[in-house]
Structure formats: structure tokens, C-alpha cells
Amino acid sequence: QEQLVESGGGLVQPGGSLRLSCAASGYIFEINTMAWYRQAPGKQRALVAAITTGGTTNYADSVKGRYTISRDNTKRTVFLQMNGLEPEDTAVYYCHLDPVMRLRAGIPWGQGTQVTVSS
Question: What is the pLDDT of residue 119?
């Protein structure tokens, strides 16, 4: 059964760093583009970063130069290194397939991991 488990969130001061991890159970995650999303209070969930199976990445403009997405296919794990965190980065972070595949697959979201940036 496909499952996503995010971890690594927490409370950090502005300018700090966090590294999020996503353990993905299921072959579908190994062979498709994976992505990180976030949902801030009162806002819709938004795509933050994505990585193909070959390692090509892309990022939302708001996080370019600060975030780095990576993956370890042997362990079906996706990471998000977040540096230079800002209060505006406060959100629940989720990993999943890229937006198109996510809709096709119909796999539920994981529980997410809370990131709070505050002094």
C-alpha cells in the first residue's frame, strides 16, 4: 500500500535551516517525479519543489536559491534542505508525486510536517 511519511519539521529562527525527509512506500514513488508542497495557514497547498527520477529539479520562485530537493531512490526517500528560512516559510510541508501524477494516482496525502519560522 502506498504511503508517505514526512518528518524533520520544527521551530526555527529566521535565517535558520531544516532538512525534511519523506519516506515513500510504494514503487510508484520510485519511478516518478516527486515533489514537496506546503500549506500555510489560510492558504491553499502549493508546490515548492520537484525532482525527476534523473535528478532534474525545479523550484517555486519564492524558494529558489534557498531550498534544495534531492532523492535517494534506493531508499525511496525524498529530502528538502531549507536554508535561509523566513517567517513566510511557515507551513505544513508535504511530499507527494508531481501534480499531474498525484491526481491520477489518487494516493492520499501524508500527515505532513510542521515548519514554524519565528524569533
Answer: 95
Neighbours of 10 (CB within 10 A): 13
Please give the average pLDDT of every successive group of 10 residues along the chain, which has 119 residues. Answer: 95 98 93 96 96 96 98 91 98 96 93 97
Measured in degrees and rounded to the nearest 5, phi and psi for residue 46 equal: -130, 150
Q: Are strands 34-39 and 91-97 parallel, antiparallel or unpaired?
A: antiparallel
d(CA 58, CA 51): 7
The 3-state secondary structure of 73-117, one letter per residue = HHHCEEEEEECCCCHHHCEEEEEEECHHHHHHHCCCCCCCEEEEE
Identify whether the C-beta of residue 2 lies closer than 8 Å to the C-beta of residue 28. Answer: yes
* The pLDDT of residue 74: 81
Give the DSSP H or E segment for 54.
none
